[in-house]
């Protein structure tokens, strides 16, 4: 197997990065070069990284925007197969990397990128567990609304050279790129359920609002989703009912208390993101240079 490039972005990840790197360097039957691009860690992240072998990639400026940072980093990487692994994404099987890249290494017909399966952390809240079970099933296919997911994914550099990552919004660069390369018929993205990693976040209401704001901005440009209070209200009701049913069926009765409030912030953030993107379009602002909230 030819050498892989592992690209990891870091910032103040000392709470988990030792686990991430230990799991990475415990992978078997693969040969890789780790590249790390750090966006200004002020904790012990880089000190921990020094315990492992890696090549640093310098980031210009102090502003972090995912798409441009990834594009600049990959331009300095020469390996053909590139794996994106988040600094808080802990591989759970010693062959996760091998499974992830096998379709690319073996030139499996029409496969140009792969996505691994993400499992929630042990402290994940029930709503997070529910969402991850939907997005990253044990079966060999992801739901239609999922494309790429960069906490654990792999792709061919030759495809990236033709289609760089999305830079028009702060976030969802993985979703947009996956949709674009499939729509343009470069090939298919394969979901590899055996390539497992642990990655999830228990967002509080403010963090959830901000996350959905980012997704709303991106969806406006990627899917041409327009801000609609009626659709937002219907989405809110559908998600609330779905969560309540899940909690009752799984015995998480106390979780029902937070459903209405949390999903209010969920859809408020998404709606505000759509509105923000619409205003940006009117003002002909083509790229986000900072976090949009």
- Give the class-level CATH name of the largest domain: Alpha Beta
The CATH architecture classification of the largest domain is Alpha-Beta Complex
Strand tally, please? 8
Our measurement of the CA-to-CA distance between the termini, rounded to an integer number of angstroms, reads: 44 Å
Category from helices, strands and their pairing: alpha/beta
Structure, described:
This protein is an alpha/beta fold and 293 residues long. It has 2 domains: 4-198, Spore Coat Polysaccharide Biosynthesis Protein SpsA, Chain A, CATH 3.90.550.10; 205-282, no CATH class. Helix content is 42%, strand content 16%. The protein is built from 10 helices and 8 strands. It has helices at 17-24, 45-49, 66-74, 96-105, 126-135, 157-162, 173-183, 205-222, 229-249, 259-282; strands spanning 4-10, 32-38, 55-56, 81-85, 90-91, 111-119, 152-156, 188-198. The chain has an 8-stranded mixed beta sheet with strand order 3-2-1-4-7-6-8-5, sandwiched between helices. Helix 1 links the parallel strand 1 (4-10) and strand 2 (32-38). Helix 9 (229-249) packs antiparallel against helix 10 (259-282). The longest helix is centred in the last third of the chain and has 24 residues, at 259-282. The termini are far apart. The model has no long low-confidence stretch (mean pLDDT 92).
Secondary-structure blueprint of this entry?
Blueprint: E1 4-10, H1 17-24, E2 32-38, H2 45-49, E3 55-56, H3 66-74, E4 81-85, E5 90-91, H4 96-105, E6 111-119, H5 126-135, E7 152-156, H6 157-162, H7 173-183, E8 188-198, H8 205-222, H9 229-249, H10 259-282
Helix pairs in contact: 8-10, 9-10
